[in-house]
């Protein structure tokens, strides 16, 4: 049986998981593809105690792995965009295929990386970069290839979802849960990427590119994290029949593409509203198929390794094909990408949840309603009596119909200028996802 030799750069959570899965399932994988995948060289700053590297060359210099003439496929699992970028570019330049889980690298430098890979006729697999073990890249790139995609929306950061779930279900403190996510290997090296929505925006950038056939444009993504959410808003949302989730949304409109990451109220009865812990889920709506949903572990050692190994299997299966016969790296032919603009957040349209802390005096509700109606903003529902007064202030909690962000910002400025409104208005976007 033929053997393809592989080098792994980075042997931490994902690299360690990848080596273990490749070793444990070696026979099963060979039964699938008729070829053995053998790891011959790994690079890491320290040896992972969860791995057996017997018979494998170990180095702390990742470029040595790339330069090893036996290595035909380089797996980059270091993270970041300095050494990792060097490793990926060097591998491509040497005509080696690449697998990476590095969404930060691809979202920012992917256009350049995929162009270079095309020139050299090599593949770059990145299933593990988005939604961990869920094969969502494959589903969109191949399974939905007959569709014009309308929109997608996903819980695409495991750490953030784990934190929100533990806070909601067990009343745990934010920093305490974040520490646990770090211990479990879910968090990024810099966890602000997780909690400020940057990691989700990296992944959303990649998903939007393969869904709509547009270049990667991370700099145009609107990013809002979960650090500003309060227990009060989580509770009021529930009373209104919603759950708050940190969502990445990419939507095609007549004017362009919406690309945004932010906390979002979702009707509690939606499946995606009930995705908890480190689990991720991505909804994709296509013109032919309608809405589809992909669910699974979004982070962690072996779930992520599952995606890395699937990419290796795909590469080994198609490495002898003509490059033109393979699936296009970003799902669409590189010369057929569209220049539909990514819209600024002020041009995006959603419904809103508003919480207005106001003095409890007659007329305040009428003032609020008139500010909204003057701007053509319709109120869907309003809640005032089920909540307790705090410091003589009464929270007015309401849901609006869909409206452009710019108009809502203008309304919020007017609301905050009211004499009876005593604090910044809290606004959280709402999506029905039906
Ligand atoms: N942890 C997850 O659940 C998860 C899921 C999906 C994607 N990812 C991505 O996978 C990548 C790796 O993440 P991780 O969680 O496994 O990280 P990690 O910190 O656990 O592992 C990083 C590995 O790289 C090695 N390394 C660091 N600098 C190096 C250098 N200069 N030369 C050689 N080796 C070096 C470290 O020794 C370690 O073995 C990142 O891009 C991350 O975003 C992680
Ligand atoms: N830090 C990321 C890892 C998976 O990409 C997360 O928590 O989702
Ligand atoms: Na994936």
TrEMBL record:
Residues where L-homoserine binds: 188
Transmembrane segments annotated in the record for this chain: none
GO BP terms, alphabetized: methionine biosynthetic process; threonine biosynthetic process
Keywords from the UniProt entry: Amino-acid biosynthesis, Methionine biosynthesis, NADP, Oxidoreductase, Threonine biosynthesis
Domain annotation ACT: ranges: 353-430
Catalysed conversion reaction: L-homoserine + NAD(+) = L-aspartate 4-semialdehyde + NADH + H(+)
Binding positions for NADP(+) per the UniProt entry: 9-16
Annotated binding of NADPH, by residue: 103
Pathway, per record: Amino-acid biosynthesis; L-threonine biosynthesis; L-threonine from L-aspartate: step 3/5; Amino-acid biosynthesis; L-methionine biosynthesis via de novo pathway; L-homoserine from L-aspartate: step 3/3
Pfam families assigned to the protein according to its UniProt record, in alphabetical order: ACT (PF01842), Homoserine_dh (PF00742), NAD_binding_3 (PF03447)
One Gene Ontology MF term: homoserine dehydrogenase activity
Active site: 203
Enzyme Commission code(s) on record: 1.1.1.3
CDD domains: ACT_HSDH-Hom
Family: Belongs to the homoserine dehydrogenase family.
PANTHER family: HOMOSERINE DEHYDROGENASE
Protein name: Homoserine dehydrogenase
Organism: Thiopseudomonas denitrificans
Lineage of source species: Bacteria, Pseudomonadati, Pseudomonadota, Gammaproteobacteria, Pseudomonadales
């Amino acid at each position: 049986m033929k053997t393809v030799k592989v080098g792994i750069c980075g042997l931490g959570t994902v690299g360690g998981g990848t080596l273990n899965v490749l070793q444990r399932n070696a026979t099963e994988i060979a039964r699938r593809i008729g070829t053995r995948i053998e790891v011959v060289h790994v690079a890491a700053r320290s040896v992972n105690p969860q791995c057996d590297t017997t018979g494998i060359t170990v180095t702390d210099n990742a470029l040595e792995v790339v330069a090893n003439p036996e290595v035909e496929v380089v797996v980059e699992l270091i993270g970041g965009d300095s050494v990792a970028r060097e490793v990926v570019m060097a591998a491509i330049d040497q005509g080696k295929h690449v697998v990476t889980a590095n969404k930060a690298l691809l979202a920012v430098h992917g256009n350049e990386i995929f162009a270079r890979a095309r020139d050299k006729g090599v593949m770059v697999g990145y299933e593990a970069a988005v939604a961990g073990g869920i094969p969502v890249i494959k589903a969109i790139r191949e399974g939905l290839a007959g569709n014009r995609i309308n929109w997608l929306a996903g819980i695409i950061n495991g750490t953030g979802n784990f934190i929100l779930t533990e806070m909601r279900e067990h009343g745990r403190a934010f920093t305490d849960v974040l520490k646990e996510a770090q211990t479990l290997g879910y968090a990024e090296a810099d966890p602000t990427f997780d909690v400020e929505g940057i990691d989700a925006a990296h992944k959303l950038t990649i998903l939007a590119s393969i869904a709509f056939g547009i270049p990667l444009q991370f700099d145009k993504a609107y990013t809002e994290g979960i650090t500003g959410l309060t227990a009060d808003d989580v509770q009021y949302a529930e009373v209104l029949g919603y759950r708050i989730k940190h969502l990445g949304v990419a939507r095609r409109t007549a004017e362009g593409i919406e690309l945004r990451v932010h906390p979002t109220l979702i009707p509690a009865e939606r499946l995606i509203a009930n995705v908890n812990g480190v689990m991720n889920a991505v909804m994709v709506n296509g013109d032919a198929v309608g809405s589809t949903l992909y669910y699974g572990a979004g982070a962690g050692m072996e779930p992520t390794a599952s995606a890395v190994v699937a990419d290796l299997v795909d590469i080994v299966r198609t490495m002898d094909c003509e490059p033109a016969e393979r699936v296009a790296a970003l799902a669409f032919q590189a010369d057929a990408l569209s220049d539909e603009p990514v819209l600024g957040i002020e041009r995006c349209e959603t419904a809103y949840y508003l919480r207005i802390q106001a003095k409890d005096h007659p007329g305040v509700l009428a003032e609020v309603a008139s500010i909204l109606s003057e701007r053509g903003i319709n109120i869907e529902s309003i809640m005032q009596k089920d909540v307790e007064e705090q410091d003589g202030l009464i929270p007015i909690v309401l849901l609006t119909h869909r409206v452009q962000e710019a108009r809502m910002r203008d309304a919020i400025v007017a609301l905050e200028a009211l004499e009876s409104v005593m604090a910044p208005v809290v606004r959280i976007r709402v999506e029905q996802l039906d």
